[in-house]
Amino acid sequence: MIWTNDPTRWMLVAGMGVGYALVCLAPYLRTRRKRQAAARAKAEAAAAPGWIIAYASQTGNAEELAQQTLATLKLAGIPAQLSELSDLSAADLQQAERILFLVSTYGEGDAPDAAAAFAGRLMTTTLPLPQLHYAVLALGDSAYVHYCGFGRALDQWLQAQGAQSLFPRVEVNRSSAEAIAQWRQHLSHLAGTSDAPDWSAPAFDAWRLIERVQLNAGSAGAPIYHLELMPEQGALPAWQSGDLVQIAAPADPANARDYSIASIPADGSVQLLVRLHTHEDGSHGIASGWLTQQAPLGAAVQLRLRQHKRFRLEANAERPLILIGNGSGIAGLRGHLKARAMTGQGRNWLLFGERNAAHDYHYRAELDGWQRDGMLEKLDMVFSRDQAERLYVQDRLAAQAADVRAWIEQGAAIYICGSLDGMAGGVDAALEAALGREALDQLTATGRYRRDVY
Asked: How far lies 137's CA from each of 93, 134, 140, 182, 257, in Å?
């Protein structure tokens, strides 16, 4: 080590040290402020018992509606507190007199990731709740067999514990405006006010489709396209890696489709990865068919940005990351890798699965570049059909259980993006085998295990 008495150098070193310390301290301070705010809200509620608005959200819809519900009650002068469902204990439920539950369903009837601990801890037990008056807003998608499955299960469990429903469960199919209006009407009646805040979602803006490139010509799988879009007017809006866009196709503007953003604002455009969906009768998906086949370059696209807080980096921005996915799920993971590369965070491990390396190695040049530049410490690409025995990303993950444990011990967070069928469940099982269910649940509870699966 070379020592120096040069005061300028000492000041430079000290300044760099302070700067690095502030960068490392920021996520801790954000987390601490969030915990302190939650503690204050709980203390205030204990001092002046009111309503609890409990939400369980996978992509942010339930949380957004919960915040609007809170605003309506506060406007009417009703004391209320907002709480994630996972933060409610048995004692909280037994002491509360009124709780409004706004919950989404993950996959085929399961609780959202953040509510899985609540479901396992409380909904498998008997907990007398004769004093509790409640209502349930259940969000879901009727394309799934177990539509609104978690909301229905929660409602049935509450009834079985003796809780009394304030009004029948309201079910929301794919953000149905009519169903949300029904919830709002019930709420206004309970609150004794019709002067509720505006519940309308942000308006769609006009964007232009400026680029479309098929990435997997010759693939055995469905065509997948890289798209780029720019706003027709004004500057490019801000978003964070992990966020989503909603696109309203002309043939079905009432049912917007969500897509993971594959870029960051520094790229100068919103970039998406869209796989063409083909039905059994040969027709294409309404949104994917229009975006990839019908809309010409330069076409106007109705688009709005959506925060996806459960898949953002946030407090994990300084942690090592294990990024796992398949298919079009590379979009959300690519956004995170871009954000990490921009801030010089190189402790990233990507495990990704597709069919054949020759046709389905999406964004290969970028991934090779990040690996070469030290921004991608570990890269595992798994191509299921490039060998006699079919291998998937969960198989590679299981074979590297020791590395998974080592990264987690070093503070890593895990992000999953891709298909719900097969991949997400297989990866969860592999992680459980490597870490144990209790440890995996703890990672979920602390925000170090996050999923965007569909």
From this structure: 17, 10, 10, 10, 21
Report the DSSP pairing between strands 205-214 and 224-231. antiparallel
Distances in Å between the Cα of 173 and the Cα atoms of 136, 141, 189, 258, 262 are 14, 5, 23, 14, 27
Q: pLDDT (tens digit, 9 = 90+) per residue, 56-92?
A: 998 889 999 999 999 988 887 889 999 999 999 999 9
Structural contact between residues 99 and 93, judged by C-beta atoms closer than 8 angstroms: yes
Tens-digit pLDDT profile for residues 123-134: 999 999 999 999
What is the Cα–Cα distance from 451 to 322, expressed in whole angstroms? 12
The model carries a pTM of 0.80
Cα separation of 328 and 241, whole Å? 16
